[in-house]
């Protein structure tokens, strides 16, 4: 990776905060990324509202009203795709002192070939009564993206730390770190997104 590209990635995340108690990084998404993600949630709402929505339903931890992976064509033409990988590189650079060159093309958003769960980037549509018990993710790094009505339902960690993500924020942390979301008590739609990054040592 060219030095100028690495410098620009570091600059992109210069205002992000380090949550050392849980080895996490959080920050505000660039407007272009947040707009893409909000568009994804509305595009996939059409599938959610379809009578055959169960065929595309993404099965994961928790009691969520509906989960769906973002379809491949939208991810592969988005700025969100390289942004998430760049954030993972920044995480390695800050917490593991990894050189950007060492992580170039080694961090991957996992692809499930020939499957409707194309990549490990999915949308969580939740409503009153939904909850996510403590769980961890596969991969190396995982993240939560806060889209809508997220302020009163924090992401909770085993050390009792609670992260109250505002719409337009992102949180990234080691994938084996257990986390949860308490039962939703308000009659509003809450939308978040989750993703997993993998580290391919063979690259």
Task: Describe this entry's structure for a reader.
By secondary structure, this protein is of the alpha+beta class. It has a single domain, classed as q2cbj1_9rhob like domain (Jelly Rolls). It is 26% helix and 28% strand. The protein contains five helices and twelve strands. Strands 1, 2, 3, 4, 5, 7, 10 and 12 form an eight-stranded antiparallel sheet that branches. Strands 6-11-8-9 form a four-stranded antiparallel sheet, with no helix packed on it. A hairpin with a 4-residue loop joins strand 8 and strand 9. The model has no long low-confidence stretch (mean pLDDT 92).
Outline of the structure:
The protein is an alpha+beta fold and 203 residues long. 26% of the residues lie in helices and 28% in strands.
What percentage of the residues does DSSP assign to strands (E)?
A: 25-35%
What is the CA-atom radius of gyration, in angstroms?
16 Å
CATH superfamily label: q2cbj1_9rhob like domain
CATH architecture: Sandwich
Number of strands: 12
Helix content: 25-40%
The major β-sheet equals: 8 strands, antiparallel
Number of domains: 1
Name the poorly predicted regions.
none
Secondary-structure element series? HEEHEHHHEEEEEEEEE
**Count of helical segments?**
5
**What would you call the shape?**
globular
Mean pLDDT: 92
What do we call the CATH topology?
Jelly Rolls
Calculate the terminal CA-CA distance, rounded to whole Å.
14 Å
- The CATH class, by name, is Mainly Beta
Class derived from helix and strand content: alpha+beta
